[in-house]
Amino acid sequence: MRMTQEARRALRITLDYTNMTDKALGERGISREELLARKKLAAKAHEALRRDRGKEENFLGWTELPYQSGESVKEILKSAREIRKKFDSFVVLGIGGSALGPMTAFQALCHLHHNELPKAKRKAPRFYVEDNVDPVRMKDLLDVLDLKKTCFNVISKSGATSETLAQLLLITALLKEAGEKPKEHFIFTTDPEKSDLLELSKKLGGVKCFPIPRGVGGRFSELSAVGLLPAAVLGIDIKALLLGAADMDKHCKSGDLFKNPALMGAVLQTIAMGKGKNISVLMPYSDNLRCFADWYAQLWAESLGKNMTLDKRPCHLGQTPVKAVGATDQHSQLQLYTEGPFDKVVTFLSVGNYRKSVPIPDLRTGLLNVDFLGGHSLEELIAAENRATAHALKEAGRLNATVRIPEINAFTLGELFYFFELMTAYAGYLLNVNAYDQPGVEAGKKATFALLGKKGYGQLLKELDGEKPDPGCVI
Amino acid sequence: MRMTQEARRALRITLDYTNMTDKALGERGISREELLARKKLAAKAHEALRRDRGKEENFLGWTELPYQSGESVKEILKSAREIRKKFDSFVVLGIGGSALGPMTAFQALCHLHHNELPKAKRKAPRFYVEDNVDPVRMKDLLDVLDLKKTCFNVISKSGATSETLAQLLLITALLKEAGEKPKEHFIFTTDPEKSDLLELSKKLGGVKCFPIPRGVGGRFSELSAVGLLPAAVLGIDIKALLLGAADMDKHCKSGDLFKNPALMGAVLQTIAMGKGKNISVLMPYSDNLRCFADWYAQLWAESLGKNMTLDKRPCHLGQTPVKAVGATDQHSQLQLYTEGPFDKVVTFLSVGNYRKSVPIPDLRTGLLNVDFLGGHSLEELIAAENRATAHALKEAGRLNATVRIPEINAFTLGELFYFFELMTAYAGYLLNVNAYDQPGVEAGKKATFALLGKKGYGQLLKELDGEKPDPGCVI
User: Mean of the per-residue pLDDT values for chain B?
Assistant: First the structure.
């Protein structure tokens, strides 16, 4: 995978924050003075990331994923080739960071009805990501799988994720029942040193395992084997994905926020947070990027939603991410966004060239609301709606920014992943929180363990059993 | 469709607001005094709805949809039978309220891999709802359709929705190219008196049209032909759907908020809004109800997100709806929900009996994190996670309520639709806003018209052409 400097530049995504400024929004906008006042803090955040990058102990291994060894990529491509040859279906068993990246790349870069295409057109196994434990969904999935022709990629950093382990137990038993060797149908992606999946691999006779490097947390893992193996199985150019990420890294080398889009994005969002904008809407104008908004939602929410600063002062920080899709949600959320409270920042993901073109025929019906559409194309219509929505929000005094994507391909998707990861990391420094832990989910996990009778949670179970709905509060 | 009183009662959904109260949350909760202080206002809201219900001029036709004539239901069932016999695929062309209801019923009540099932198992046409104008998505859809065997249900109240009309023009031309008569492949669902679709029906030789009653707005239209025809085509028991809605109507007859769950729901949410909770999370613990959360998001956002009260005082009201899905989003949003700002109310949709069962085998691996799961079932696991999450939120002082659904079927889905519609209508009265208009989307529509050169928008186009990104704000 080689690309000229020029080709890369033509594919560079950009941040346009015109409609975040006071020039566009008057006093509802952010002034240059406000930005300049953050210049030093931003440079410090940039310097902190530069200093820590790659450090395993800080969970900053993700910064180096674009530069992983050719060997590890080769190994992934080799397995992918074998899987494509041997299996009709490929199922990811994972949840959270183990699911959202693979789903995002699939939706962004594959046919939107991939699983319904005949094999010859599909050219890759059918693809499923099971990121829940709803029994209806699991049964329904089993209805469309031929187990003998299915590969299951079990993804869990710790190897101790209850949802994923429950699925693994089920599939293991079903494979055995079908007379298949589980070992030949499983691939594990997990911590290479300490993980229950490593133990299970042994017990199942040596399941092939791919590593998630120790310093890479779930929500920052898409560019590790977590995302790369499923993508490669689908025939996605994973080298281009990594190259795009590396290009974004380079593009964000500067400590000057006016020259570093990820740093500017983080500064703008944190200024907005300081002004009470507790909602961050990501609004792609593309069905291919629906899932990207879900991926971002995890990254932004889990990284910044914290009750303690790095220096251990209590806080309740975080912006709630919301997915909206254009033009669809103009007919669902736009009314609120233009007239409701001034409580959000909308970030558009705008596509330059859609990879397919659909002209709208001119049928000359004589109807005013119909005929103006003829002669245009769907891509013109959706792009016009995107521009119109940004305009309407601006007119209503609402902060909005646009990330422009020249076209959606593996390279630009790599840029996008890395851009938002960088922006999140910078925002963590700016807010002075640890962007890499998630202590707030422990209480729920423990309560689940207690309810299912796991050893050591007897006291908590008693407490939970004492908690009944108040009959006076049930109608 | 007959059901005993007892059968209905067993299927009744309930609202449990224990974790909204000060008994559960201390001073972060809502006290009985606060509720009692709203008793009169709530009774007034209830009385206003009772007075206005069914009124076309108030857009309150939706309240009577559960009681629509047997004739109109018969007509829908007749068409549905013909469609099921004649076509392999059924495509809804619509956006917003014309799409979300049909998608919700499909996902709630059909097989989750419906379109991938062989015809004999599916027993209904493959089903698609096209609610966007992304050219990639349209091309990809066309790749999996056999036009000669496809029925297109074009849904638009006004008949003037640009996105839907663009799709209609395209499909009309394609059908003609394929030597098919468009008339035989289209069904229109629209205003029965004034709609461009009525004109187009004539021009196409008389396309069959189903009515959306005049007093029924898009986001309240699911129980009209908008939702009933697609549901009937899928083999969903639409009489049970209507019966469930009627049952909920009856269940909410009281003007006493302590006896009327929809009224209590509205009062609780508006009290929370007054305390700065500007985010409303709907969190179903069921993949079948994912789309229900999107349907709710439109209903709640568009109805209450307003900049003007009924007596014409300026305001900026509205709560931003967020979809989260359990257990999935415990691994994405829960960290923020437990530790972030106290800015949201989480409403769980909890399922009593999942309609399928998946036991988790006990494989005795000797691993602590694995073996406690064996012998349970996926339905136990997901229910335990739901309970654990409610507990964790309560412990963290976060407002949360639970809507309990004994099981997901057509009857309970009817209850759910009507419950949230009622709650939204009550909230409109409580907030003193018009829950049935959406003036805030006009600016965006006009700008789109201008950008596409529609007559009469020349001045606006000039203005838009003058708006360029500030080069200093593009990185």
Answer: 97
Determine the distance in angstroms separating the CA of B74 from the nearest CA of chain A, rounded to an integer: 31
DSSP-assigned beta bridge partners for residue B284: B349
Give the pair of three-digit tokens for residue B225: 């032909």
Q: Reply yes or no on whether B302 is catalytic.
A: yes
Asked whether residue B84 falls in the same domain as residue B110, the answer is yes
pLDDT category, A3, cuts 50, 70, 90? confident
Catalytic-role residue among B55, B176, B445, B462: B445
CB contact under 8 A, B200 and A360: no
Distance (Å, whole) CA B125 – CA A63: 48
Residue among B325, B327, B370 whose CB faces A165 most closely: B370
Tell whether A230 and A252 lie within a shared domain. no
Marked catalytic residue, from B302, B379, B415, B421: B302
Find, in chain B, the residue whose alpha carbon is nearest to that of A264: B475
The range of the structural domain enclosing residue B411 comes to 5-54+240-431
ipTM above 0.90, yes or no: yes
CATH number at residue B257: 3.40.50.10490
Q: How far apart are CA A22 and CA A31, in angstroms?
A: 5
Verify whether the Cβ–Cβ distance A361 to B173 is below 8 Å: yes
Cβ pair B339:A316 closer than 8 A: yes
B163 and B274: one domain?
no
Domain count, chain B: 2
Query: Residues A131, A95: contact at Cβ < 8 Å?
Result: yes
Give the length of chain B: 475
What is the spatial distance between Cα B413 and Cα B105, in angstroms, rounded to a whole number? 8
**pLDDT digit string (tens) for A164-199?**
999 999 999 999 999 999 999 999 999 999 999 999
Q: Tell me how far apart the terminal alpha carbons of chain B are, to the nearest angstrom.
A: 62
Residue by residue, DSSP assigns B222-256 as TTSHHHHHHHHHTT--HHHHHHHHHHHHHHT--SS
Q: For residue A214, what is the DSSP state?
A: T
d(CA B188, CA B179): 21
User: CB–CB of B317/A341 below 8 Å?
Assistant: yes
Smallest CA–CA separation between B52 and chain A, in Å? 24
Task: Tell me if the pTM is above 0.80.
Answer: yes
Q: Give how far B265 is from chain A: nearest CA, Å.
A: 10
Average of per-residue pLDDT across A399-417: 98
**Chain A partners within 8 Å of B347 (Cβ):** none
**Cα–Cα separations (whole angstroms), residue B258 to A117, A143, A475:** 53, 45, 7
Please write the tens of the pLDDT for every residue from B429-445. Answer: 999 999 999 999 999 99
Average pLDDT (A456-460) is: 95
Contact at CB, B166 and A360, closer than 8 angstroms? yes
Q: Say if residue B2's pLDDT is above 80.
A: no
Residues B73 and B102 placed together within one structural domain of the fold: yes
- Which residues of chain B does A163 touch, with a Cβ-Cβ cutoff of 8 Å? 327, 381
A383 in the same domain as A313 = yes
Return the number of other C-beta atoms located less than 10 Å from residue A53's C-beta: 15
